[in-house]
Design goal:
The protein is α+β, with helices and mostly antiparallel strands. It contains 14 helices and seven strands. The strands form two sheets. Strands 1-5-4-3-2 form a five-stranded antiparallel beta sheet. It has a two-stranded antiparallel ribbon with strand order 6-7. A hairpin with a 2-residue loop joins strand 6 and strand 7. The protein starts with a strand and ends with a helix.
Length: 286
DNA sequence: GGCCAGGCCACCC
DNA sequence: GGGTGGCATGGC
């Protein structure tokens, strides 16, 4: 079995930090999809074993060619991020397929992670090509045209709720939308272009920019990040922006001044760290 | 059962 | 430009 020597990498922290969905554990392997092909991956200490796709694609997807130590030391400028990096060391921002990532985060709107997984599982089952891989029957992620041509009524059977129009609309747009080319654009331009899609607002666009278009400065702010930022940095933000409630742009501005070009990495560490931290505190109160 | 979830659109001022 | 109600659905 081929493997890649990967230091400063945690497969589990990367796959299960809420940036991607649909990876399924069977024994020591995690089954998923990279570059439109079924794959399995497994980590044993510093080695990442893989099968189903070329090494080049695995390296790209898991951002294994990035100088991660430099990014970590750059953002760990206060105890919060220091602790987060310490606890979730090896977490890397993935480079997902932009179409897959876009649909995923459209499904995330006003939904929790189990709900997102459910929607995506149903979409794949209903519209994705069935394949046999490593003795397992899997469904690939649906093609845009198959989603674009689906009826809203049928899409709703995938538990999409009011997101049905968003997903269908993007499927329709994809025909003339070179979403991959946004990798070569600046962050602001890529985000604006994404937001021309019905249903893609600032937060979802930031997720797509960060998790699939190499825009590490993107700083998506959901309810958890908002809570975490107010909780950990409220006093500091208020010193810079004297308000009682902070808007999306306020928090973003602070994040960029604090973490600069790699703010997205800080965001991802805050996401996993604060969710655990806040959940812990919630338990202690009961 | 009621509240909440990796928000957005339409509409208001 | 910035601030609210409605929205489908399932988890907990």
């Amino acid at each position: 079995m081929p493997f890649i020597k990967a230091d400063n990498f945690s497969l589990v922290h990367s796959l299960f930090s809420g940036q991607c969905f649909g990876w399924q554990r069977i024994g020591v392997w995690y089954y998923g999809e990279i570059a439109g092909r079924p794959v399995k991956v497994s980590q044993v200490r510093g080695k990442l074993y893989f099968d189903g796709v070329e090494e080049r694609e695995v390296r790209k997807y898991f951002a294994l060619n990035e100088n991660i130590e430099k990014i970590y030391s750059g953002i760990a400028t206060d105890p919060v991020i220091e602790n987060a990096v310490e606890e979730f060391r090896g977490l890397r921002i993935l480079k997902q397929d932009p179409w897959v990532c876009s649909v995923s985060f459209l499904c995330s709107i006003s939904c929790n992670i189990p709900g997102i997984e459910l929607q995506l599982r149903k979409l794949k089952h209903r519209y994705g090509t069935a394949v046999e891989f490593d003795g397992h029957r899997m469904h690939l992620f649906p093609r845009p045209v198959d989603i674009g041509n689906a009826s809203l009524k049928e899409l709703r059977k995938c538990s999409l709720g009011f997101r049905d129009r968003y997903v269908k609309s993007l499927g329709e747009r994809m025909g003339g939308f070179e979403i991959e080319e946004l990798r070569d654009k600046e962050y602001a331009e890529a985000k604006d272009s994404l937001m021309e899609s019905f249903g893609i607002g600032p937060k979802v666009a930031d997720c797509i920019c960060l998790f699939s278009l190499d825009k590490t400065e993107a700083f998506p702010i959901d309810v958890w990040i908002q809570r975490a930022m107010v909780g950990y940095y409220g006093k500091e933000i208020r010193r810079m922006i004297p308000k009682t409630r902070f808007s999306y742009k306020d928090v973003q501005k602070f994040a960029w001044e604090r973490w600069g070009k790699d703010a997205g990495y800080a965001q991802q560490f805050l996401y996993v760290y604060s969710k655990k931290d806040l959940k812990q505190k919630g338990r202690n109160e009961h």
